[in-house]
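User: Hey, my collaborator sent me this sequence without any context and asked if I could get a structure. I don't really work with proteins. Can you help?
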Amino acid sequence: MVVGRLQQGRLSILDRIREMVRLGAGLDDDGRLSAEASERALACLSRFAERLDSLRAGSVRAVGTNTLRKTRDRLDFLTEASRVLGHPIDVISGVEEARLVYLGAAHSLPGDPANRLVVDIGGGSTELIAGSGYTAERLESLYMGCVSVSASFFPEARVTAKRFRMARLAARQELAPVAERFRGAGWERAYGTSGTIRATAKLLVDDDNPSGIITRDGLERLQADVITCSNLNKRRPAGLSEDRAPVYPGGLAIITEVFDALGIESMMAADGALREGLLFDLLGRLTDEDARQRSVQSLQNRFHVDLLQAARVEAVALDFQRQVTPAWGLEGQLSRQLVAWAARLHEIGLDIAHAQHHRHAAYLLRHADLAGFSAGEQLLLSALVGNHRRRLRPELMEGLPSSWSVRAPRLAVLLRLAVVLCRSRSETPLPPITLTASAKSLTLEFPEDWLEAHQLTLADLRQEAKYQASSGLRLRYR
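Assistant: No problem. I've predicted the 3D structure and written it out in C-alpha cell form, which is a compact way to encode the shape of the chain:
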C-alpha cells in the first residue's frame, strides 16, 4: 500500500506498507485459491483497511494482478476481499499493469528525455515496457514471475546448477517471441522495479559499486553464490532477507535471461512501480487526464466512428441517465462515464461488418488492451455496447460484480433508447423528452403529436417495448 497527498498540484508520498502474501503460491492445478492463501490475503487487507480508516483517505484504488487474472474463483474472493478492505478491488490486465508500472517508475526517475526500458518482475508475471517521459510505447506482460518460477524449479528453496539452467531455459523460451521487439525499441537506459530487482541491487552494493548497479557479471556472481548456499531456507547470501529468500532464485533466473535476451549491459533500480503508478493514474482521473478517455478516443479513431452520431447518442443517453438516476439508483461518476463511453463506442463494430455489429463491438471491448480500464470496467462496457440493439443478451451481464447486476441492465436500457431515438442521424435536435422510472417500468413522454409525425420512431419504440417486456420491464411512451 502506498499513501500520497496532493499538495499544491504535486503528489508527495507519505507512507509505504509492504507485506509478502504470495497469493500466487496458493493456486492449485485447477486454478483455485487455497484457503490458507486467501486467509493470508484477507488478513493483510484487514490491516490495510485499519490504516486507511485512520488516515481518512479521500480517494482509494485497489487492484489485483496476475494471480487474480488466473484464478477460477476470482469473483468469490474479490467479493470478500472488497468487503474486508472496505473498497472495491479491480483486476487489471497484464498490459495495463505494465503501463502503470512504467508510470510509477517514470515519476520516480530524474527528468530525462532519453528513451527508457523498464522491467518489473512480479510474483506471477514479468512486465517489459519501453517508453520516453511518462509515456509507455511498447508494453508486454509475460507469464513468469519470481513466485511461479521458484515454485516450479526451486521447490522448498533448494537450488542447484541444473535447476538454474532449467529455470533460465524456461525464461528464455518465454522471452523469445518479444525479445527482438524490445531490442529494437531504441531505449538508452534500463531500469528495474519490484522486490527481485531491489534485492539484487542491494546484494551487489560494495565499495566498487555503491549505487548497486546491476550488471551481467554481477548477476553471474550472484547465481554462483545462491547455488553455493544450496538451500536458501537454511543459508542465504548476506543481505538477502528471510522473506525474499524462497522466491529469489526464480527472480534471479528471470532477470539474468532478460539481460541476455534484450542485450542489457547495466540496470538501475527504480523506486516507483505499480503502486506509485496507480497513485499517479488516480491523480490523472481527478484532474481530467484520465487514460481511459484517451483509450476511448483511440478506438473511435481506429474504427472510424461517426463522431457526430456518437455525440448525439451520448447527449441523449446522459440526459436520460440524469432523469432516472434517483429512481434507478444510477448515482456515481462511473455510471455516467460508462454511459458516455458506450455511446461513443457503440458503432465500432461497423468497421468489421454491419451484420451483428453490436456483437463485434462487444467482443472488441471485452478483449482489447485498453489503457486505464480494469477488467471489470471493460466487462461492463462490453455488456452495454453488446446490448445496444436487437434482442437483449443477458449472458453479457454474467460475471459482473454483484453491485452492477441491477444497474448495468438499466444503463443498457437508456443507451438502447438513445440509439433508437437518434437512428435517423438527423441534425435536427430531439424535442424535450421526460422519463419517469420505477422498479419495473419506464415511461417516456413526448410533446403532443410528435410521435404521430415520426412513424418510424414510433415503430422502433413498439419493437423496443417488446424486447424490454422479455426482461420484465414495462416500457411505455406517450
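In plain terms: The first helix runs from residue 35 to 55. You can pass these C-alpha cells on to your collaborator as they are.
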